[in-house]
Amino acid sequence: MRVLVVEDEQLLADAVATGLRREAMAVDVVYDGAAALERIAVNDYDVIVLDRDLPLVHGDDVCRKVVELGVPTRILMLTASGDVSDRVEGLEIGADDYLPKPFAFSELTARVRALGRRTTVALPPVLERAGIKLDPNRREVFRDGREVQLAPKEFAVLEVLMRSEGAVVSAEQLLEKAWDENTDPFTNVVRVTVMTLRRKLGEPAVIVTVPGSGYRI
Questions:
Q1: Does the global pTM surpass 0.90?
Q2: Where is the OmpR/PhoB-type domain positioned along the sequence (predicted)?
Q3: What is the dihedral angle through the alpha carbons of 210, 211, 213, 217, rounded to the nearest 10 degrees?
Q4: CATH fold group of domain 127-216
Q5: Can you tell me whether residue 26 is helix, strand or coil?
Q6: What is the pLDDT of residues 107-122, one digit of tens each?
Q7: How far is Cα 3 from Cα 21, in angstroms, rounded to an integer?
Q8: For the chain, which end, N or C, has fewer CB atoms within 10 Å of the first or last residue's CB respectively?
């Protein structure tokens, strides 16, 4: 899942990003509304965690722009105000969910994951295919009943492949969904991660390489 965190409190923004990355999400971070609009123009995000009171461009205007673009990105709006009227107003301009500060990180993570599921065709909470069972919420993976311990990026790649339901996923798509914008697009990190993932999942291999196209399960 690719997430954009937009928050002008840098310590909070960086803490949220670090926590989401530990949950195997690819996260970009910006600290004002203008920078957010620049990122949204060039990257596809599943979820945007958007502070409402932003400098340069207000969070409401960022939200309206996302709605205007007509993209499937979901918005979780944050604010220091807990007034019901503010929550209603935020939802009316296009936010998909609303979380007042201060918040529990576990709740933010759950809400981000719930919104991420709404950007694609509805799938069950626990994904199963080819003897693999993947639970995004518990961060657990089993192969034929055997638990498999995966690093965050390995988990993220496997989740993208599982969600594709047998369709081919290109290396570029995996790079976009599982890594942030600071990753070198010419790196071989996708190939190396897939190789490690295959080894950990064991035989018979379930991740198939489609020459010139990508990978599928």
A1: no
A2: 124-217
A3: 10
A4: Arc Repressor Mutant, subunit A (1.10.10)
A5: strand
A6: 999 999 989 877 665 5
A7: 9
A8: C
